[in-house]
Amino acid sequence: MSLKKSYVALAWTRPVPWLGFDRLSLDIDVAATQSRTIRYQRDLIRQYVREVQGVLEKEIALLELAPDRATPESLKILEHLVRQCSPQAMFLSVDFTAAQGWRPQPALRRGVPVERCLALAPDPLLMDGKRFDPQAHFRAWRQKEKAHVQSRPEHRQAVLQALTGQQGLSWPKKADLLNAQDLRAHGGKPWTADNLRKFLALTPK
User: Which of 97, 45, 105 is nearest to 71 (CA)?
Assistant: First the structure.
């Protein structure tokens, strides 16, 4: 009786700082509740492993800063993962480059022998009874990101309005006031005395 083929799941996504999404659990099941992209990859890989009657040794989710490189932290995790897994295990990921050239991540395969890498096509998948199409998902996110970039003037006006009549406050107090209203910097970071001072210095009078 032959042993089942072993697999390792590698899933990743990018942060969205302006929405406060800048952390991701390494536990893929927890990460799947934080990111639909991670959930999609997890479910697609698990479906494949069931179809080939294999077994998943390990699953991991990574948060990457750019689509074409991995952070040093992620590379350390991947290198450790290779050492942990059995020598015959295949590393599975979803090849988003097959979806109109979007979201490549060749860095996921760094440190993993090329003959042990297998990339799955980003086909639509049923999730919660609904069809999840990664191409449509990423297209919608591009529109959201574009709208966010274009909202910069409105954001500036909202900050100035919130500070109206607060000229007597110190810079730290002004920053605290904005943060308490959940009115953060346009990139999603909390206000500090320093970045608020720079922001107002660049604001046309």
Answer: 105
Provide the 10 A C-beta neighbour count for residue 62: 23
Give kind and range of the element (H or E) at residue 167: none
For residues 202 and 186, the answer to whether their CB atoms sit within 8 Å is: no
Q: What is the pTM of this model?
A: 0.79
Name the residue with tokens 């990339």.
Answer: 119
Q: Name every residue whose Cβ is closer than 8 Å to that of residue 95 and which is 6 or more positions away in sequence.
A: 119, 120, 121, 122
Q: Provide the residue type at 21 as one letter.
A: F
Beta strands (DSSP E) in the chain are 6-13, 55-63, 90-94, 117-120, 125-127, 130-132
- Do β-strands 6-13 and 90-94 pair in parallel, antiparallel, or remain unpaired? parallel
69 DSSP assignment:
B
- Give the span between the Cα atoms of 26 and 47, in whole angstroms: 20
Contact 86, 5 (CB under 8 A): no
Question: Distance between CA atoms of 90 and 49, rounded to whole angstroms?
Answer: 11
- Do 99 and 122 contact (CB within 8 A), yes or no? yes
19: CB partners within 8 A, 6+ apart: 188
User: What are the backbone dihedrals phi and psi of residue 203, each rounded to the nearest 5 degrees, phi first?
Assistant: -80, 125
Residues 96-152 pLDDT 10s: 876 555 555 555 666 677 788 888 999 999 998 999 998 888 888 788 888 888 888
Q: Pick left, alpha or beta for residue 174 (phi over 0 → left; psi -120 to 50 → alpha; otherwise beta).
A: alpha
